[in-house]
Amino acid sequence: MRFHFFSVLCPLLLLLSGCAGCSAPAEETPPAQRQLFAMDTLMSLTVYGPQGEAAVQAAQQELSRLDGLLSRTDPDSQISQLNARAGDGTWVPLEPETAGALEFAQQTAQLLPGDFDCTIAPVMDAWGFTKQECRMPAPAQLERSLSLVDSAALLVDPSIPAARLERADMAVDLGAVAKGFAAGRAVKAVLDAGASSALLDLGRNVTVLGDGPGGPLWRVAVIDPQDAGRYLGVVAMRDQTASTSGGYERYFEQDGIRYHHIIDPKTGYPADSGLLSVTVISSDPQLADALSTALFVAGKDSALDFWRGREDFELILCSAGGTVTVTEGLEDYFQFQGDAYGYTCETARR
Ligand code: ADP
Ligand code: MG
Fold it and tell me: Is residue 227 part of a domain?
């Protein structure tokens, strides 16, 4: 059995930042940089300008603090406290940020019922993803864990703030939204520190702020889900997040079959919608993160239908058949490079 933990092994291959072929003038202050491991991911923060050092430090502190609140595996986190008290009938008091992330996860579940559910934790455990002891669960175990997935039984009261899980053995896993939520908070920390140009790479969740080092736009690569060393293309972005979800990120193989970490809440099995990856580009980092996971489960047709009903994000979908579908808002911003690897590109219109 092989277990792949892509974000640890090669996080920076995901990204070409700044303007390719350009570099900052020699007399400018070099950017302040930090790497940290949080939310199961190696994160890399770069802030330009005279306030860079203060800003990068503030962002790092905020990310570590949120990791401490939202982690599923840290027994002291607020999510662990909430999970430990599932079914005991009491409201668990929370920091406003924890309640905010839970509320946002609940809203996403309502937007895309059947595709997204942050009470998926028992199923993640059954597959062994939580402790990185992956294996195919026995059918009875899978059935029982799936019966515990029910966002309607997660109650959040932001006015206290507090939350409760109505049934024993239920549990929350914010893995699909925590990085996006944290990215939004890290952007605020950078701006509050007086900086305005930054690249926050939270591992497949890349936020760019203000000017890039070589011009007003940043160039962010979209990885080829079939070969992490290659790119499907490059998106030119500003004040936006690119979040990618795909079955290639974390998976294990058993008897020649690959099982990945994004679960279809309807079946309890890894989502099998025909998509290899979904990249969401949005000016809202938490929306980008949540939707990349949910729309990966939903599949191409449903993802495009959902996109047609909204104005606040664009998509790059990579299908198993080798088609890369780019929504029309990215037409002038996405430079396709996948033809070199046998992919074809199409534009989706409203
Ligand atoms: P990553 O965090 O690896 O970058 P995602 O943002 O797509 O990738 O989130 C995947 C994580 O989301 C899983 O590790 C798990 O914690 C959680 N998850 C898996 N399936 C679902 C689902 N259908 N709805 C909500 N959360 C999910
Ligand atoms: Mg996500």
Answer: yes
